[in-house]
Amino acid sequence: MSRAKTxxxxxxxxxxxxxxxxxxxxxTPDSFSDGGRLYAGEQIDLDKxxxxxESMLEQGADIIDIGGESTRPGASPVSVQQELDRVLPAVQxxxxxxxxLISVDTSTAEVIAEASxxxxxxxxxxxxxxxxxxxxxxxxxxxxxxLMHMQNQPDTMQANPSYIDVVSEVxxxxxxxxxxxxxxxxxxxxxxxxxxFGFGKTLRHNLALNTALDRFxxxxxxxxxxxxxxxxxxxxxxxxxxxxxxxxxIMALLMAQSVAARQAQVNSHSGLILRxxxxxxxxxxxxxxxxxxxxxxxxxx
Length: 301
Ligand code: YH5
Prior knowledge:
By secondary structure, this protein is α/β, with parallel strands linked by helices. It has 10 helices and 12 strands. β4 (about 40) and β5 form a beta hairpin. The longest helix has 21 residues, at about 245-265. Ligand YH5 binds near residues 105, 148, 196, 226 and 229. The site of ligand YH5 has 17 residues, from β9.
């Protein structure tokens, strides 16, 4: 019998016995995914934010990832106050209206601290808690953390990504950051790892990481993976931002399959979270796959 796969997220528990779907909620003015629709002047439009969350939850999202800093290549930096003004009202509103897990996509200590008080359930940091105070704030929150790998910074990361061995270097970085977190008092089973697709990586780097997911599963940590609408999808199928839905869903499903295959091989107790824009389509793909797997197992009895 395999141990129940769950992640304790503050007052809530995330079921990781199957891949969990994390729906992306950008509360940034330049959000490419919604063309800034959630943003009205200085303040985010909370009604539209909540509508977007409601629809992702109806579509089967397990977690809502709220981010107030655009980290797409070349995006402009945001001040601490701006980020707080974007993220906090969204976390509060989502937490009071919906019974969902809330993840906060942030690298900022103040945002980690305030969001955890406002009801956030997970800290998702593309900078792996390297900013001043972020590690301490995350440790104090008691929430699970996702550590992501990025080479260089968002404004420069796609200029000239370069590695000798991308898979080993990304793994080495994540293991180092994990150790720093454990030393700071964060429990190892509260740490998720993410190779950071598209963050200072060429298409070849992204594909190398994609074909080496076994080695990430073998860390024993739950994984968080995000390829949704990223340029690697666009490059593979030669499509612009508006035509990446099918490619994104297929890539998510392929990743879920390879992770699950390795997890079964090594009897892993870790799980997988997929970070996506297109919740409905991703959930449908995962559901079809799970149904065929379940039937296969039944048939083998
Ligand atoms: C991630 O992978 N990504 S924000 C550029 C795009 C499309 C999408 C050029 N936060 C991740 O979604 N957190 C982001 O097209 C993340 N893992 C984790 N843990 C970037 C993004 C995007 C960027």
